[in-house]
Amino acid sequence: FVRLGYSVFEKKPFLQRVVQTYKNVQKSSALLFSACSHLLHNKELMASLAESHFDAVLTDPFLPCGPIVALHLALPAVFFLNVLPCGLDFQGTHCPSPPSYVPRSLSFNSDHMTFLQRVKNILILASEGFLCNVVYSPY
């Protein structure tokens, strides 16, 4: 995670930064998937959670481990994030989200975008599907 954060400030060619970011996201995703897998295969801990009779699982929807644990424990999952990853909130509600007007999450754009900000917004939208596939395909 630290390497991913530091890579933002490195002065490398654009394409090299894209490839490096992809590799870092892939490594981070593998680490988080491994942690989730170990949690789910820890029979003692999962039994202890089941015996605790919780009412719900509070989770961040960015990674699916929380909802998977909730499903395993037959508990409702309560998400605490204002946006779902990969545009799933727009898909689930069938709300239109034209990138020329609606800023993407983490773009730091307002709804009054310049032409270059609109181009940036479209590039972020285009890269989301690719990065979401990298992050979520192991699950």
Account of the protein in words:
By secondary structure, the protein is mainly alpha-helical. The chain has two domains: 1-81, no CATH class; 83-138, no CATH class. It has six helices and two strands. The chain has a two-stranded parallel ribbon with strand order 1-2. Helix 2 (14-41) packs parallel to helix 6. The protein is flat. It starts with a helix and ends with a helix. The mean pLDDT is 83. It comes from Civettictis civetta. Belongs to the UDP-glycosyltransferase family. One of its GO terms (molecular function) is UDP-glycosyltransferase activity. It is a single-pass membrane protein. This is UDP-glucuronosyltransferase 1A1.
What order do the helices and strands come in, and which of them pair?
Elements: H1 2-7, H2 14-41, H3 43-51, E1 57-59, H4 65-72, E2 77-79, H5 88-93, H6 115-136
Parallel strand pairs: 1-2
Helix pairs in contact: 2-6
